[in-house]
Amino acid sequence: MKTYKFTIRGHAYDVEIINVEDNVAEIEVNGTQYRVELEKEFKKTKTPKLVRSKVPSPTIKERKIPKNISGKATKVVAPLPGTILQIFVKVGDTINAGDKLLIMEAMKMENQVLAEKGGTIKSISVSQGDSVLQNDVLLEIV
Description:
2 domains
């Protein structure tokens, strides 16, 4: 916290104030710790002291990252609000990761929406010219 150097009757002292709560201070003088009571009461700070409980370590089950089961559909959602300009796939098409699915206009820019994983197009929820909001489902990949 704060460090002071004192010389009393020719003896040098290095004093560090570690913590002050109410009228009790924890100090360290030349490497030895002391708890001392203060005669003068200090003003309490307006900032509360945070006390955090220890977070338990995650279990082995919690540490594992869940894998996407191939039978479940992956939803492709709109990254931003915008308008669908062009769709490059149709239901039943087989795609690979990184393939261009559609182009949407968002914030006066054309944005390509790419496939995050390969699979087959299960359904398409939008059509050309539709306005979508952020996180709206555009299509599903199985």
